[in-house]
Amino acid sequence: MNRPSGSCRWCFCLLLRSALFVVWLTAPAWLCAETISGTVQDSLGAVIAGARIEISGGDLAQPLVLASDGLGKFTSPDLTLGAYSLQVTQDGFELLTKTVDLRGPVILQLTLSVAKQQVNISVAEKSRAFADSDPVYRRLRQVGLGQTFRFDNFSLACGGSADTCK
Questions:
Q1: Has residue 135 been placed in a domain?
Q2: Are residues 90 and 107 in the same domain?
Q3: What is the pLDDT of residues 95-140, one digit of tens each?
């Protein structure tokens, strides 16, 4: 009866060793957490406070949303190694998308471009019902040119002052 007890211990010891080995293999992935940090600025180098930074990818189930502080700086919490996508937005600026392969701490300098102003102008088409309805316009259209004459080799002599021509 001594044998089953020793066999159980041996199985338990083997199972414990296997579990510890699996933990030893996967622990570096849990321990290797890195950060993405940086500064958000405009094209002239002025910092942009309150910019929205959305980080997605890696093992994130949902995008992580951050905001730049008063100095334009941001720092992500610990992220696992992998590929991440950053989208940076701020009113008055174009959307910036950046891809990062996180293998260690990453410090970014993100520069936003000023948004191009879009102006839409709508001109209502002139209604044909009102075309040529102005009486002065109609009268001018009816006057026409009248008689015309052609002159060849004609010269006009002017007197002493520029105002008087004969």
A1: no
A2: yes
A3: 999 999 988 899 999 999 998 877 888 776 666 666 677 788 778 7
Supply the DSSP string of the chain, one letter for each residue: -HHHHHHHHHHHHHHHHHHHHHHHHHHHHHH-EE-EEEEEEETTS-B-TT-EEEEEETT-SS-EEEE--TTSEEE---EESEEEEEEEE-TTB--EEEEEEESS-EEEEEEEPBPPP------PPPPGGGTT--HHHHHHHHH--------SS----B-SSTT-B-
Q: Give pTM, 2 decimals.
A: 0.53
Domain housing 10: 1-31
Instruction: State the pLDDT at residue 134.
Output: 78
Mind listing the pLDDT tens digit for each residue in 73-84? 999 988 989 999
Structure tokens at 118: 């879009």
19 and 6: one domain? yes
